[in-house]
Amino acid sequence: xxxxxxxxRISCGDKMPHVVTEACxxxxxxxxxxxxxxxxxxxxxxxxxxxxxxxIDCGACINECPVEAIYEESDLPSHLSDWIEKNAEECLDAxxxxxxxxxxAES
Length: 107
Ligand code: SF4
Prior knowledge:
Blueprint: E1 18-20, H1 31-35, E2 41-43, E3 48-50, E4 70-72, H2 82-90, E5 95-96
Antiparallel strand pairs: 1-4, 2-3, 2-5
The site of iron/sulfur cluster has 13 residues, from loops.
């Protein structure tokens, strides 16, 4: 049975969206955007987020991230749990990431 969604997402249910976390901040590598089959990434000035309603949970982006910033929601370390809501809320007003932005800083 589907769980109720704490963020009132339309598509929550059994989905386990992927989440960008703080390791992305001030790097904004574009490798994840390039492999996403559904354009789920959204772009903010210093980091990316994933739109949980677009993510189809394919997992392709996880290993592409050079700074290991992306987790499946169920694998998210507890100290990063705020990033679930951050992705869900901040994606709403953010531009679609097209993968062409410069990397802000190499790690
Ligand atoms: S898990 Fe798949 S669909 Fe979701 S953001 Fe990553 S690449 Fe895109």
